[in-house]
Amino acid sequence: MTLLLLALGVAMDATAVSGGMAIRGARPPDILKLAVTFGLFQFGMSLAGALGGKVILTHFAAVDHWIAFGLLALVGGHMIYEAFSHDEEERAASTGIKLPMLMTLGVATSIDALAVGVTLPALELGVVLSTGLIGVLTFVLSVLGAWAGKRLGERFGTSIELLGGVVLIGIGLKTLVEHLNH
């Protein structure tokens, strides 16, 4: 359950951006390109974080739960902050989806996945399963976010991003409380 919630939380930025792009008139082929980009970036960045984070966390086993909590709280807090400030994404969306924009949005929405990937060893979640689920779920939710964005409006995207931040903070708190109780 923790893995699914983590993957959902990390995918919310990409879902919200996809919804926003759809609201601004992105065509289905562009939405597909965006979803593939988001899925690949989320997978790659979370994998990079997990591989690098595993080495770091072996040296900090006594405080790994604090590291996981801190990173998830920072990422979740950043997502909540971003839910209220979409100016850059709105400007980018109005010009269409070109390769430089795809790459920029891919990196921007996956930085959170890098930080979350660092927490995967502390959470004792399988790296391949976790990062794969994050990538696939991000792809699926990006397509669904675009579909919903066309129908439900810009407010839906902000709510999803806000919810994603809250979910990540909740996972961080759960990890901290579970470790402190053992």
TrEMBL record:
GO terms for molecular function: manganese ion transmembrane transporter activity. It is a multi-pass membrane protein. Keywords: Cell membrane, Ion transport, Manganese, Membrane, Transmembrane, Transmembrane helix, Transport. This is Putative manganese efflux pump MntP. The chain crosses the membrane at residues 32-51, 63-81, 101-120, 127-148, 160-177. Belongs to the MntP (TC 9.B.29) family. The gene is mntP. It is found in: Cell membrane. InterPro entries: Mntp/YtaF, Put_MntP. One of its GO terms (cellular component) is plasma membrane. Pfam families: Mntp. The keyword Ion transport applies. Its main location: membrane. Probably functions as a manganese efflux pump.
